[in-house]
Amino acid sequence: MPRPRAFDEQQVLVRAREQFWTTGYAGTRMDDIAQATGLGKGSLYGAFGGKRELFHRVFDDWCASVVEVAEGQLTGGPDAEALARLSGYVRLMAENAASDTERRGCLVAKGAAELAQHDPAIAGRTADTMTRLLALLRAEVSAAQRHGDIDRAADPEQLGALLLSVVRGIEAVGKAGLTPETLRNIADTVLAVLPAPGERKPCR
Q1: 111-161, pLDDT tens digit by residue?
Q2: Are 126 and 56 in contact (CB under 8 A)?
Q3: Which of 89, 50, 49 is nearest to 68 (CA)?
Q4: Tens of pLDDT, residues 171-192
Q5: What is the rounded CA–CA span in Å between residue 80 and residue 85?
Q6: Element (H, E) at 23
């Protein structure tokens, strides 16, 4: 009968994530993970496999959390509030980037940049994450169009892709050193250029 693990697996994954997030995949050794988690390398290998398997686990959890945050901001509620939900999400992402004083960026982008070309699992997980984010944004654009807040003639797929590209780009340029004010202004600008309806509703 296998012995129960004497450590908190989730806590170990969080500490491993912080190490990978700070030093990247290539810059992280299992010795670093062992030091960060307080576990011996034998325990790490036994519980999670090698460095690649551990990173896959951390990366999958991070991707799931990225989608979960978007779902919390973008799903549910009436069409009349869709534009407000979109605005809130875009501005939240800009604020997160602005508060990243260590300029670590997003682990999705960091992992994809390092590994996607040579690691099908990372490439597939990244693509799935972006596809799910795009679907959420597209649905909210469509809802705002139904309510008359965004021009119904516009393509919701294209507008969703624009918003997704800007959100992910804000993280990248924030890591490169643009000021928090600039990041917030980028968010405000993309929201301002969403096409308004050709005929505005009369004031009530």
Answers
A1: 999 999 999 999 999 999 999 999 999 999 999 999 999 999 999 999 999
A2: no
A3: 89
A4: 999 988 899 999 999 999 999 9
A5: 10
A6: helix 9-23
